[in-house]
Amino acid sequence: MTEPATAKAKSGVDVTGFVSRRTLVLRRFARNRPAMASLVILVLLFVGCYALPPLLPWSYTDLDFYALQDPPSTEHWFGTNALGQDLLAQILRGMQKSMLIGLCVAVISTGIAATIGAIAGYFGGWRDRALMWVVDLLLVVPSFILIAIITPRTKNSANVALLIVLLAGFSWMVSSRMVRGLTMSLREREFVQAARYMGVPSRRIITRHIVPNVASILIIDAALNVGVAILAETGLSFLGFGVQPPDVSLGTLIADGTNSATTFPWVFLFPAGVLVLIVVCANLTGDGLRDALDPGSTNLRRVRRKKRA
């Protein structure tokens, strides 16, 4: 007799009909067509911005003096800017910076939020008070002004690395409060109490019992933070405080195209359109993950829509 058949004979329940929570989440996410399409688009954009530049006849630094602010053509698919630089190559370079910054900021800030929130919620006492004091302090610090003062003093890769650190350092506070609240509830659960009585170290309890049970919130938070971080980087670069020349990002390209948006619209519309596409896809992917991990959120939004109607 096979193992599933033996289990069924002993319990009287057909265990082969059960599926894991991971499988259920993947199925729910796959049924969400906008979220699934958005995830595919994001992956294609991320892979394309690194894979396509070597295949193009123009790099983002090359100048074509015979095609100054030329409209889209077979030679320059997205046209050129005032210096004769190929706009497609520049947008791909800008996507590399903006998407890399957004992804790194989301991962780092989510990791900080999970660590700080879990420690504060699990231990309580003076650790909780000290960490929440730091959270309250950072929430009132004018982060935009601080980043704008520091980042222009660095160049090239150091500028991008510092920008990632600063954006991540001011993006985790609200999420850490959510993790703290969930941890305070989880630490009173039976499985956590049992682990304590068995002498399991606190660090192991946090990593093996607390963090996995708040992972769904962290995944959603990381997905939504990608779009927020990209917008923050774009805003800083647009004002000249983010990625510094000669490098480019979507923010610097949009800033360069604003002055000629009415006369040479492709210089502004293409980078702006790519930015909108990335942010919308990131938000739709985050919403899809939230619906897949928490099906009750979908029903709640439907009830609210009916009430508004």
Write up what this structure looks like.
There is one protein chain. The chain has 14 helices and no strands. With 309 residues, it is mostly helical. The relative contact order is 0.13. Mean pLDDT is 83; it is low at 1-7 and 13-17.
Highlighted features:
309 residues; mainly alpha; MetI-like fold; elongated; disordered N terminus
Major β-sheet, in short? none
Low-confidence stretches: 1-7, 13-17
- Average pLDDT confidence is 83
| Class by alpha and beta content | mainly alpha
CATH level-3 fold name of the domain at 94-282: MetI-like fold
What is the number of helical segments per DSSP (H or I, 4+ residues)?
A: 14
Query: From N to C, what is the helix and strand string?
Result: HHHHHHHHHHHHHH
Number of strands: 0
What's the CATH H-level superfamily name of the domain at 94-282? MetI-like
CATH class (first level) name of the domain at 94-282: Mainly Alpha
CATH architecture of the domain at 94-282: Orthogonal Bundle
Helix content: over 70%
Apparent shape: elongated
- First-residue to last-residue Cα separation: 58 Å
Integer-rounded radius of gyration: 24 Å
Strand content: under 5%
